[in-house]
Amino acid sequence: MDVIGLVRTAGVVGAGGAGFPTHVKLNAKAEYVIANGAECEPLLRVDRILMANNAERIVRGMEAAMSAVGADKGVVATKEHYHAAVKALEGALKDHPKIRLHVMKNTYPLGDEKALIHEITGRVVAADELPKDSLCVVCNVTTLVNIAGALEGIPVTRKYVTIGGEVERPVTVSVPVGTPFRELARYGGIKGGEKDHALIRGGPCMGTLEEDWDAVVTKTTGGLLFFKWDHPLIVRRKIPIGRQLKLAQAVCCQCSQCTQLCPRHTLGLGVEPHKAMRAAAGGDAKLLGNINGILSCCNCGLCTHYACPMGLTPSVIMNIFREGLLKQGVRPSKSPGPVKAEPDFALKRIPVSRLIARMALGSFDVDAPLDEKPFMPKKVRIPLRMHTGAPSVPVVSVGAEVNEGRKIAVIPENALGAEIHASIDGKVTGVNSNYIEITGREA
Q1: pTM exceeds 0.90, yes or no
Q2: Homologous superfamily of domain range 3-151
Q3: CATH fold for the domain made of 379-440
Q4: Quick one: 431 exposed, middle or buried, by C-beta within 10 A (0-12, 13-18, 19+)?
Q5: With a cut of 50, which residues of the chain have pLDDT below it?
Q6: Measured between alpha carbons, how far is residue 368 from residues 174, 188, 249 in Å?
Q7: Over the stretch 418-442, which tens digit does the pLDDT of each residue have?
């Protein structure tokens, strides 16, 4: 079976957020395939629900991925308090001796790819390396379900999304790719709109403050979280960059607590947010220290949301420097020797319960049960770039009748990308360089 070819044809990409084309990821040699079921971001529920309801398909996707990369070890990593998921996975793995279940404590950000590899194998992926350099391939559990679908000729057309925060009906639902956020806000029973609520696309720590409620669900969307504008999480995100830099100059006491608790620092990757704060305060990039430390930041936000005793935003400052370096073409350099995690690495893991309390999210940490009835919008707008690489190229024109699953855009020649398929039955009513619009037949 041509697993890589089937995955390419189905348009499978990393569903955990990065969107890297999976057919490219599987074109490697590895010892381990690791299923990431940690879902470390607070409030999101997609992965645990998927594991509880689709454990056998996750295992099938794992077997296919292991076959593609030649791995003889498979590990499904999840958290101990996902009781239904653990039970389902234990049952699904009974007859699969090459795949084991690894159950973890509920700490943040254990879903980070490099942290997960270290947790499973004890290996550290250096700043200039990829997981495959440590003979590991990591796939989100949703990605594995999509790989299982690809083996059956089923392309990626839908995405499970958690609708949470300050909504009347916290829920997790399967929606067509291209569904507008505004419709899901109504589905969750939100009172008011943009004037009353802010929207975070993704999780509260690493997600993006989304001002356009007409933006749409992509293959990587995992959650839509709504909060009042005066919630501390939103107030902090709305601080202008210029003011954040002034606060760093005036208030940062260089206690280095942001660095001491940084997960990538404890992995031995040299991430030092306090030096970024020092460089910002002094207006001198030479104070950044090792550039690898900036480029290795995973933007987990722990330094901002938990570590800083002064309420500053080291993660924002780190991201400013990181984006600037990447725009200049700077890339991580080779580490001079083996990279080793700190001996007390595990002692510095932050319980998610404490993170939730610190971020004033306790009242929103509730069940968002799966709605068994798939959501169906009247119209979708499917982005041509919702993955790492080049935008896909449309192969349909306005007026074309399409059914869900029909290929509507392909990978440009000799480029990194992913194929895209219609997510509903209907007529193509718009095609441009950014998206393909499809209006349902019953609209």
Answers
A1: yes
A2: NADH-ubiquinone oxidoreductase 51kDa subunit (3.40.50.11540)
A3: OB fold (Dihydrolipoamide Acetyltransferase, E2P) (2.40.50)
A4: buried
A5: none
A6: 13, 10, 41
A7: 999 999 999 999 999 999 999 998 7
